[in-house]
Specification:
alpha+beta, 9-stranded mixed sheet, about 25% strand, elongated
């Protein structure tokens, strides 16, 4: 038995990063207007609160739903909304859910290694097939749709930025990612039917359900080398070094180093890759401490 345990420890992949998960933004909607007392309690238990109205497109005087957007809500705020739903308004549901994750390098890895892993080795599952990344200063969006006036915003995107302090402990230039789900029907597919479900979130299981993590760089290099050899055989009159440089430049511009683009270009090879388990997950945290207003 000791030999088996030693073999497992010797062959276990060393973790690249420690992941700290917390709810960043949660939006709820209801048919009834929220009581003023409830709004004061929620405001004291979140970083920022924004009440909104969802009006009819043709009749602005008609209000269909009352919306409450909470940034960095505390555990108490989520439980309070669950109690409000059970006791006063069963129509309350989650219409927006942003789960944030801060990645911290483990021993033996640098910040640049983790940042490279976050940008290249993760892929958001069940994303639109026409999704293309969009960069705005230091922020990367997994889908560029919605940034033009004639396009609708996607209901689910992945966001990465590394130029702002952590909302948990203020660490400067934290490697921060968010799974932004902006549609109520999409939220329900994650199993989050109620605010209480958010407090019971398992960070590791939720990450596995939302993302695919695979080590694809080795296979991508083999594919590129095979294409280089075939291209050199087709263009014997050209210098082999020039052909190689052009082929590598082409696939670099196509973004083959990113897992999402690799899957789109080589789906059969992607399915042959095994999941890459190199992350350690802490328990669910909250950026805002509880303030009991009962």
């Amino acid at each position: 038995m000791e030999n088996v345990e030693q073999f497992v420890r010797a062959n276990k992949t060393r973790a690249i990063a420690r992941v700290r998960t917390y709810p960043d933004t949660i939006g709820v909607s209801a048919r009834r207007r929220f009581p003023v007392k409830l709004l004061h309690e929620i405001k004291a238990n979140c970083g920022k609160m924004i009440p909104r109205l969802r009006r009819d497109d043709h009749d602005p005087e008609t209000t269909w739903r009352y919306v409450l957007i909470m940034h960095q809500p505390s555990r108490w705020a989520l439980k309070r909304l669950h109690r409000y739903k059970c006791e006063e308004d069963e129509s309350l549901n989650i219409c927006k859910l942003h789960i944030a994750r801060d990645f911290e390098p483990c021993e033996g890895y640098s910040r640049e290694d983790v940042l490279k892993f976050v940008h290249e080795s993760r892929r958001l599952k069940y994303e639109r097939t026409d999704a293309r990344p969009y960069e705005f200063f230091e922020t990367t969006y997994s889908n560029a749709r919605g940034h033009a006036d004639d396009q609708t915003k996607p209901s689910k995107i992945d966001v990465i930025y590394s130029d702002k302090p952590s909302k948990l402990d203020g660490t400067p230039d934290a490697i921060h990612t968010e799974t932004r789900i902006n549609a109520g029907r999409e939220v329900k597919t994650t199993g989050m039917n109620d605010c209480l479900d958010v407090t019971l979130l398992n960070p590791a299981q939720d990450f596995t359900a939302q993302y695919a993590v695979k080590k694809h760089h080795g296979m991508a290099e083999k594919i590129v080398c095979r294409i280089i050899r075939k291209t050199q055989a087709s263009y014997m009159d050209l210098c082999p070094a020039i052909v190689e440089r052009r082929v590598r430049g082409l696939y670099r511009r196509l973004g083959i180093d990113r897992l999402s683009e690799f899957r789109r270009m080589f789906p059969h090879q992607y399915r042959r890759l095994n999941p890459w388990d190199v992350l350690e997950f802490d328990d669910l945290e909250y950026a805002k401490g509880d303030k009991n207003c009962a």
